[in-house]
Amino acid sequence: MFHSTDRLAIFIDGSNLYSAARALQHDLDFKRMLDWFREKSVLTRAYYYTAVVEGEEFSPVKPLVDWLDYNGFSVVTKPVKRFTDGSGHSRIKGNMDIEIAVDMLELAPHLDHAVLFSGDGDFRRVVQAVQAKGVRVTVISTQKTQPPHIADELRRQADAFLDLSDLMAEFGRPKTGAAQ
What we know:
By secondary structure, this protein is of the alpha/beta class. The chain is built from 7 helices and 10 strands. Helix 6 (about 150-155) links the parallel strand 8 (about 135-140) and strand 9. The longest helix is centred in the first third of the chain and has 11 residues, at about 30-40. The protein is globular and about 50 Å long.
């Protein structure tokens, strides 16, 4: 699946990965994750995408974003949008799908292999487009939760699917209860 000479990039849908890891009752060790991929191939880029709430004195994602930024990840953020739903409830939205899709397509000519950490079926088409450029795509999410975090159409489109639960021995750690 992974070849030592492959030029590889990682694309992490932060909220999707967080949700899958939480459902598996694990936290992720991002340093071990990078080391694991570096052992398997030539890691050219590791992207982490997340929406951030602006104007809050403390954001729980801020320490993670800062750590990732200083430790080998290209962090892509954008502010969440606040809106009122049809029931009058205040909601926030911070979808990063377009940013991930554009970066995957732009980097494709320079890659042999792309790894997408997301189970979102909306990515099926961009995976197909990247494959058409000659890039193998591995999707990492989980189907070992109820409901599964991986959309069937995305799993079928990918060249390979790795279940996140099977990788926890490599770069996961059991949830401690305290924020990491």
